[in-house]
Design goal:
six-stranded antiparallel β-sheet, 2 domains, alpha+beta, three-stranded antiparallel β-sheet, 6 helices, globular
Length: 232
Amino acid sequence: MNRSFYASLFALFALWASSANASVVPVSGGYEITYDIKLGIGSSTGGDILNTFIFEWDENNNFNVAYPYTIAGKGRTRIRHTISFEPSAALLMGYSLGIPGVGDEKDHLFTVNSSSFTNQVTGLKWSQAFPGVPPEPRIGHSAMISLLNDAASGDSVALDTLKQFIQTEGYRAGFDPAAGNFRVMEWTTGNPIDYALAVPAVSDYGLVIILLGVFLLAARQFWNKVNRDVSS
């Protein structure tokens, strides 16, 4: 098989590994939202992203919060739920627990946010990316993890504080869930980690199409070889 075959095969694999695809589908009683999140290289601690909250909203001031979800620290996670309106923006937030002997051993925040926001805050720490909007106080990295944990445990005050954060500051990081153009960021004590390849994975149908493409490429190479042998 020649180099062009391997180049085509690699291109197909890259498409499967890093293509973005989220969906917003009308269903009875609302809209079904699907997030396929793929952490190709895995979180820095190897741990899962816990107590993940999904914040969704639209231009008509409709707002929805769904929780808690867990995103696998490595590999693919599919989150699917139904809400009453069609969202124009979404932001996911969660955290991973520090593991003794691994990295800085500290808990880390994670956000699933827009690519444009990632580009804007590259190299910034959490407190620099979200400095607070007066008169609301700034919510630091550790304080945000505590809020997520408390709200997931049923603390209504913590949940209201999270909603206020999204509506006053966090909305800047939102992405269109129908477009699927998002990135996953891990916020550490240093610079955040941008999982550039941790975009939504292609659908199962997309994987079938890619595998079919690999088969057709292989078949083409085989018949070209047969024709060359016959000609010679």
